Amino acid sequence: MGSKSLAQAQSPLDETPTSGLVAPSNSSAITVFVNGNILTVDAEFSVAEAMAIQGNQILVVGSKAEVVQLAGDGVTQIDLAGKTVLPGFIDPHVHAVTGALIANLMEYVGIARFTTTEDVLNFLRERAAATPPGEWIAARNFDPSVQAGPEALTFAELDAVSTEHPIFVLNASGHLAYANSAAFAAAKIPPDIENPPGAEFVRDANGNLNGVMKNNVAFGQVLLRYPAIATADPVAALLNLAAQFNQVGLTTISEFSLGPADMEMMNATAATGKLTTRIRAYPFYTYDATWDELELQPHTGDAIARISGYKLVSDGSNQGYTGLQREPYLNTDNYGLAYTEPEELTRLATKRSQQGWQLAIHANGDRAIDNVLDTLEVVQSTGTDLRSLRPRIEHCSILHDEQIARMKKLGVSASFLIGHVYYWGVAFRDEIFGEEKAELLDRARSCETAGVGFSLHSDFMVTDPNPLQMIEIAVTRRTQKEPDYALAPWEAVTVESAIRAVTSDAAWQLNSDHEVGSLEPGKFADFVILENDPRRVTPAQISEIKVLATWMNGQPVYQL
Fold first, then answer.
1. What would the pLDDT profile of 408-438 be if each residue is shown by its tens digit?
2. Which residues contact 244 (CB under 8 A, 6 or more apart)?
3. Which of 343, 414, 418, 485 is the most exposed place for a label (fewest CB within 10 A)?
């Protein structure tokens, strides 16, 4: 980290040339970019002034003289005029395939639009007034931890909006949802429904369903009854989402709750030849038996869309009070929820690691992280070369010193939802954990110091992906609600480390560092052209840097 890359260990996929030039061929035209500030994000974080690409690959990076000489005559030359070039940004934990449809079919009602629950309810009332009876109303990104008002949207609140329209509202965490009684009726949810393993249909003090659902295993039973999902065009939705992501410089994204239908959608979209981001997908554990029936193997796919690892979930969301904790949440007796019990987590992790799968395990609460590390120690004890599989802890939110030491010993890296600091930092301090525990959130600098690698992600749709903003948050630790307050500022990292966390280190976690993540000969020509160098502006201005162009696979896919 810092001026070093995430890890020196190489996987069987690693084929990246470490030095030298790639000789030009006559297979396709050569384009030379000159007079630039090209941050290669290689092992030394080298800076060059020119780069040549041929077809979809990088040919050479270096001085203008050597690049022009090697490229030869008859090339297309583009003058960067001092602009900054970085590897295409990578978001190593999003829900692109599942989120593409939902983002198009649900109204955004999050904190960036409404500051109170009453504002959200008023908006839903307006939608109900304008919607024919019987048609669904769906919204996303509601979050009572930062939107003032009741702690949840129950039948009481949503039935008061309408009993003639099924209403479904997704929490910003993606781990909770709320519905009115009409939606439960449309989904044929019986009053005596049993809770699925690791999920809950919440009940009131009298034992009656109240419309709150924990974990997608529960709320999916309602959401999938939303007719618009069945009639939507998933391929068009994913192509559109990729194009939106290109505007913030993203060239590689991910899917972290892949189901069988999602895999078909991803492959169909890639087959169009129009997909403008690469996708690295993680099959979701709730379909474990189906993946066995399909005999799905790790690394299935190609350079555009590929299966990368296997996703397990140990708990829920801290801001949703379902993250599993060592101690109860502030002023409560609630310890959170184990979405997967430790014994089952260990069984699944052992099974999949022995099949050669990388494990990516969701853990937000500190007790959940304990469970994950206990599981990985068992996996290692079976003789599995755990380190070579590059295990990851997703979000890895509340992290203690001894857990960091255990991660280092096991070869486990972290992927931080860094938006937690910006959007929820004050809520964690004042309402969810208290100041002392809130300061354990997203400990990037402590991990870096200990030699534990990390990446930064958006967890779209929890937050919208904006790599430059993620870099800024990691560097400043500032919060939205109190702009002058930095949460645990000693956990801030350098701009170079933050850049690595959305380029080379993110590629490493996705088992794609042999092909993307740095600007080196032989890698794919995925890069972003920026108005300014993130290292040369004040940290609070990093998110304001304009993305001028995004190139993916040797082609421009976005231009300002």
1. 999 999 999 999 999 999 999 999 999 999 9
2. none
3. 343
Q: How confident is the model at residue 101 (pLDDT cuts 50, 70, 90)?
A: confident
Q: What is the pLDDT of residues 212-241, one digit of tens each?
A: 999 889 999 999 999 998 888 999 999 999
Q: Are 424 and 382 in contact (CB under 8 A)?
A: no
> Does residue 286 contact residue 311 with C-beta atoms inside 8 Å?
no
Condensed to tens digits (0 to 9), the pLDDT of residues 390-412 reads: 999 999 999 999 999 999 999 99
The pairing of strands 209-214 and 176-179 is antiparallel
CB neighbour class for 190 (10 Å; exposed up to 12, middle 13-18, buried from 19): exposed
Q: DSSP 3-state helix, strand, coil percentages of the chain (rounded to 5)?
A: 35, 20, 45
pLDDT per residue over 167-184, tens digit each?
A: 999 998 888 999 999 999
Strand partners, 472: none
Widest pairwise Cα distance in the chain:
80
Nearest partner of 539 among 481, 486, 500, 461, judged by Cα: 486
Cβ neighbours of residue 218 closer than 8 Å, sequence gap 6 or more = 177, 195, 196, 199, 200, 201
Question: What is the Rg, in whole angstroms, of the alpha carbon atoms belonging to the chain?
Answer: 23
472 pLDDT band, cuts 50/70/90, is very high
Alpha carbon dihedral 301, 305, 309, 314, in 10-degree steps, equals: -140
pLDDT in tens, 475-529: 999 999 999 999 999 999 999 999 999 999 999 999 999 999 999 999 999 999 9
| Helix or strand holding residue 559 (H, E) | strand 555-559
Taking residues 273-295, report their average pLDDT: 97
Strand, helix or coil for residue 248: coil
Pairing status of strand 50-54 against strand 57-62: antiparallel
Residue 80's beta-bridge partner residues? none
Q: Strand runs (DSSP E) across 204-324, as ranges?
A: 209-214, 250-258, 278-283, 305-307, 310-313
**Residues above pLDDT 70, as percent of the chain:** 95
pTM: 0.88
Nearest-angstrom CA–CA distance, 490 and 477: 9
Q: Tell me how far CA of residue 236 lies from CA of 109, 209, 270, in angstroms.
A: 24, 37, 11
Among residues 77, 87, 34, 83, the alpha carbon closest in space to that of 546 is found at: 83
DSSP state of 205: T
CA–CA separation, 331 and 535 (whole Å): 42
Q: Count Cβ neighbours within 10 Å for each residue of 108-122 and write b for 16 or more, e otherwise.
A: ebbbeebeebeebbe
pLDDT at 20 over 70: no
Tokens of 206: 């009298």
